[in-house]
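User: Second chain of the day. Same drill as before.
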Amino acid sequence: MNTATDSLLTPANRPPKKTNGGYLFLPKSLARGAFLKWLRRTHAWFGLWGAALGLLFGFTGILMNHRDILKIPIGRMEQKEIQLALPEPHPRDPKAMAAWLGETLAVDTSHAKIRKEPGKTVTWNNQPVQQPASWQINVRNPQKLLSADYWEGNAFVTVKQGDANLLTTLNNLHKGTGMGVGWVLLVDTLAGGLILLALTGTLLWTRLHGNRLAAAGLGLGSMSLAVFFALQAISG
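Assistant: Same format as last time:
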């Protein structure tokens, strides 16, 4: 017996029947209610968290990915070399040298990488020559590069400086060049967010589109292509 409501539901406006049995990787006990609400919110909030950094890493990633094959310019570093006369008395060790360079050139050298090589005997024109100890001081951040070389006994130090343009600065941020622990941990949260977005997005996609064969084909196809091109590059 048809009711008044049933008579109003013509074939054109009846709601479509559900197909494919719900979410592909979720048990039926989780495919409803509070868990799905949490899943959608988690996906959305992690997407918002990584949006700004995603733009930076996506843009610079495209530039770096094509810099060899398509010759896309990714910026430049303008470099210059100078020789600085040392004060009297000379800095007594590499740390003192780094501090003096920081004051002289107005550069933060508190996190400089310092290397000291002891003196050694080398052969020059078939004659043994005593080579003095050398100091190398390197300071690098996304925008600037400073490299100082000093041979013990000299009255000067050779300094190379470089200033990056905007594109090079962005690429250095992408690579974490000269960045501290805070930046590294921040980027780690983005990487973790991308993993979580991939997982939650896969679960949500299977409900929206439902074709399990297409889901499996798309996922396995993209992974197969990635493995194929990676192996081709390694073996080539």
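DSSP finds seven helices and seven strands in the chain.

User: Great, on to the next one.
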